[in-house]
Amino acid sequence: MGIADGWRPIADLRRTPHKEEYDIAVVATPAESTAAVVKQVVRAGIKAILNFAPVQISVPPDVTVSDGEHGDGVGGLSFALSNRSD
Fold it and tell me: How far is residue 14 from each of residues 4, 7, 11, 64, 73, measured CA to CA in Å?
């Protein structure tokens, strides 16, 4: 999928974090970059992350994380977002 299909690179998130509302971020970074990328994602207000990075990530309690290799993927995250009580 390309940008027209809803995918955006992290550089776009830094430039226009509030121009569009993002629901789910996919993190697929080297281990040494993951914490910085996740920090930007959380700062932008994204509440669901599909993690393909080779490390576990720490996020605030209001952010849902699915491990891309072992979790329910985007479908599980979409379900979690649509059933939030906040």
Answer: 18, 14, 5, 21, 24
Helices (H) and strands (E) in the chain, counts: 3, 3
Q: What is the pTM of this model?
A: 0.69
Output the furthest CA–CA distance in the chain (Å, rounded).
34
H/E run at residue 61: none
The architecture in CATH of the region 3-82 reads 3-Layer(aba) Sandwich (3.40)
Tokens, residue 20: 């569009």
Could you tell me the pLDDT band of residue 82, with boundaries at 50, 70 and 90?
Answer: confident
Apex 63 CA angle, 53 and 55, nearest 5? 20
pLDDT digits (tens, 9 = 90+) for 25-44: 889 899 999 999 999 999 88
